[in-house]
Amino acid sequence: MSKKTYEYKCVVINENAKKTAEILNKYGSDGWKLVSVWNSWHYLSKKIKIEDED
Q1: Domain range for 27
Q2: What is the value of pTM for the model shown?
Q3: Best CA proximity match to 8, nearest among 31, 40, 39, 38
Q4: Residue from 40, 36, 33, 38 nearest 19 by CA
Q5: Number of structural domains in the chain
Q6: What Pfam families has UniProt attached to this entry (predicted)?
Q7: Comparing C-alpha atoms, which of 45, 41, 6, 5 is closest to residue 20?
Q8: Element (H, E) at 46
């Protein structure tokens, strides 16, 4: 059985739609997945480690 480990990041983005998309696409290309948005806060997660359990 494998164990998945994630890293989380919260970033504030106060930009127009085009610039926001550019910023989020950059995070996406770095392996981050957008999880949620609340006001200007953007919550991201990234799988960082998979361990095999015996």
Answers
A1: 2-52
A2: 0.80
A3: 31
A4: 40
A5: 1
A6: DUF4177
A7: 41
A8: strand 41-52
